[in-house]
Design brief:
heterotrimer, A alpha/beta (about 375), B alpha+beta (about 100), C alpha/beta (about 180), A: about 375 residues, Rossmann fold, six-stranded mixed sheet, C: about 180 residues, alpha/beta, Pyruvate-ferredoxin Oxidoreductase, domain 3, 5 helices
Chain lengths: ~375, ~100, ~180
């Protein structure tokens, strides 16, 4: 059904259509509309799920462990410092290989206190064993939440997945969305089944100690699962496209006007839309420019990216996070996989600083002239 | 030892390498006899014992059990010799004896 | 069509954010692509608030703030003492002000500005100074960017659970639409 809804509602609908059973949630701006909508669905009897009113985000993440171990498909959402409070539990969920799905309404972490968008919350958790998607539109929110469960629950993955959407810049935007039919979603996403669950008749031990003689082996298993996720993400994107007619690049990266592009901007999230709008404008003036949108930050799609870089003369990477004392994490990582490519690095949009069409124009101009290589887009 | 030999080499006592470190066979702690750790062995004098249950309650390893006659006994397979029972017994019915090793 | 951007100026509690959303829903019913979003500030009752709507024939890529809207709607002219409602405007932009004064009396010289007394109509039709939705009737007539039919549909959808408020808003919209038609 085509309609106009807020992206936060699109996220909540994604969870509802995925037939989520347990939602331990603790509201925090700008993710709050997500638990609000889910509460509405449950109260109105549209969603057969339990909302657990936990006392903190740490408890929300902890409750996910228990709920998934009972065999219930589970969901939560958070932002910024709430995300930071969950931090301790994030690697436990992935270490226990629990297919949790979480929406992260990206917001700067304090301080100074700031409620607006950047990627400092989720990007700082890149090493915690969660698949990380960064989305661009409300439509992608609803589609991706459904795909997240498909990927997280795949037997070759069994890792938690977070879907990151820009706080305010997306969470609070009303726009056109095509809501998938429940029947079709059901055919895409089968009911959640798990071999190892809490069962008094068949007791098992969950979360035991991993001594030095086994811990590293478990980490290797997790790394293998993450690498497996690359193909599983691609397949989920493809299967979804077959059923619903919508796909997002190859699932890992999305290419915009990249066929003959000489200069490209690479980024994550909503600023890619603004880069696309500028690229379209510059294309009309004959400039060979394009956009690479990184959708899957973890696993990091090295091969897909390398292929996308092949014809490029120069590339600009826009980070909405700064690894203080080092550089933009995305910039650093792209440099590591593209030794021959001239890569420019920009720090942009921290704490809600708007990233404008003019910013994008200046970046494309930098790429063309080759002069300015590093900048904070103030 | 070559590098290849060490990769994935897991000691026998370790937990099975199931996904997510799940242990699917319950009660495996039972196989782990900690009785050999003891320096001192607690001994209950059944004549002095008033069956108050203090030792049973405070034992951190649940190594004290009640037999079919209602007597409090110590399972020396698991008793680590921490002597909390010895210290807490209100009627001093528990003594400590040096283990002969 | 080219991408059209609309900026609403109101006070916290006046419903400027709802205005931008209802306009977006209406544009959708006209078969358009749309975005509506508030200025992501810390909102308090009575404080100046801005919200925006984007309308286009195709999917809208740009996601930055709105800097140079084609249309500005001022729900409360007293804001103009503190807020520059003309900021970023190009010469061909249209400013619609809820006021019984003329644009030049309001100091809007050099801009294409139209004033219309939305509060008066709202008080007559709704009985309360609810101007946020009523203003869209005037906007539809003056700009032709959205049809009155789509607007009615959007109001029904947005206020489905609020009883007679949908009907009253639609009536206020109709009155202002008729009134503003001659002002196009």
């Amino acid at each position: 059904m085509k309609t106009v809804i807020e992206a936060s509602e699109a996220v909540a609908l994604g969870a509802k259509l995925s037939r989520v059973k347990v939602c331990p949630m603790y509201p925090i701006t700008p993710s709050t509309h997500i638990p609000e909508r889910i509460s509405d669905y449950i109260f109105d009897g549209e969603m057969d799920a339990e909302m657990i009113h936990v006392e903190s985000e740490h408890s929300a993440a902890s409750a996910l462990i228990g709920s998934i171990l009972t065999g219930a498909r589970s969901f939560t959402a958070t932002s910024s410092n709430g995300f930071e409070l969950m931090y301790e539990i994030l690697p436990i969920l992935s270490g226990m290989r629990l297919p949790a799905v979480m929406a992260v309404a990206n917001r700067a972490v304090a301080g100074p206190i700031n409620i607006w968008n950047d990627h400092s919350d989720a990007v700082s958790a890149r090493d915690q064993g969660w698949v990380q998607f960064y989305v661009e539109s409300s439509q992608e929110c609803i589609d991706t939440i459904i795909q997240c469960y498909k990927i997280a629950e795949d037997k070759n993955v069994q890792m938690p997945v977070m879907m990151c959407l820009d706080g305010f810049s997306l969470t609070h935007v009303f726009e056109n969305v095509d809501i998938p039919e429940q029947k079709q979603v059901d055919s895409f996403l089968p009911p959640f089944k798990r071999e190892d669950i809490l069962d008094v008749k068949n007791p098992k031990t969950f979360g035991p100690i991993g001594l030095p003689d086994s811990f590293m082996n478990f980490k290797k298993q997790q790394q293998d699962a993450m690498i497996n996720a690359i193909d599983v993400i691609k397949k989920a994107n493809l299967d979804y496209k077959k059923l619903f007619g919508r796909g997002y690049g190859d699932g890992l990266i999305e290419l915009y006007k990249m066929d003959d592009a000489e200069y490209a901007i690479l980024a994550m999230g909503t600023i890619c839309g603004t880069a696309k709008a500028k690229a379209e404008e510059l294309r009309a003036k004959g400039k060979k420019v394009g956009v690479i949108r990184l959708r899957s930050y973890r696993p990091f799609p090295v091969e897909a990216l390398k292929k996308a870089f092949k014809k490029l003369t120069r590339l600009a990477v826009l980070d909405r996070h700064i690894s203080l004392g080092s550089d933009g994490p995305l910039f650093t990582e792209i440099n590591a996989i593209a030794p021959g490519l001239d890569v420019f690095g920009y720090i942009a949009g921290l704490g809600g600083r708007d990233v404008t069409l003019d910013h994008m124009e200046s970046v494309y101009l930098d790429l063309e002239t080759g002069k300015q290589k590093r900048e904070w887009l103030m | 030892m070559t590098r290849k030999e060490t990769v994935g080499d897991v000691a026998k006592e370790s937990i099975p390498l199931n996904t997510g470190a799940v242990i699917r066979t319950p009660g495996n702690t039972k196989k782990y006899h900690t009785g050999s750790w003891r320096t001192f062995r607690p001994v209950i004098d059944q004549k002095t014992c008033i069956k108050c249950g203090t030792c049973w309650r405070v034992c951190p390893d649940a190594a004290i059990y009640i037999d079919k006659d209602g007597k409090y006994r110590i399972n020396y397979d698991y008793c680590k010799g921490c002597l909390i029972c010895f210290r807490e017994c209100p009627v001093k019915a528990i003594s400590k004896e040096l283990e002969q090793k | 069509m080219v991408l059209k951007e609309v900026r609403f100026h109101g006070r916290g509690g006046q419903g400027a954010v709802t205005s931008s959303q209802v306009l977006a829903i209406a544009a959708f019913h006209d078969g358009k692509f749309t975005q509506a979003f508030p200025n992501f500030g810390v909102e308090r009752t009575g404080a100046p608030v801005e919200s925006y709507t984007r309308i286009d024939d195709k999917h809208i890529n740009v996601r930055s703030h709105v800097y140079s809207p084609a249309y500005v709607i001022v729900l409360d002219p007293s804001l103009m003492a503190n807020v520059d409602v003309t900021k970023g405007l190009k010469k061909d932009a249209l400013i619609i002000v809820n006021s019984n004064k003329t644009p030049s009396e309001l100091g809007l010289k050099g801009f294409d500005a139209k004033s219309i007394d939305i509060t008066k109509v709202a008080l007559e039709v709704i009985g309360k100074p609810f101007v946020n939705i009523a203003a869209l009737g005037a906007f539809a007539a003056m700009t032709g960017e959205v049809s009155i039919e789509a607007l009615n549909k959007a109001i029904d959808e947005r206020f489905a659970e609020k009883g007679k408020i949908a009907g009253l808003n639609k009536e206020a919209c109709r009155v202002l639409y008729e009134k503003a038609k001659g002002m196009k």
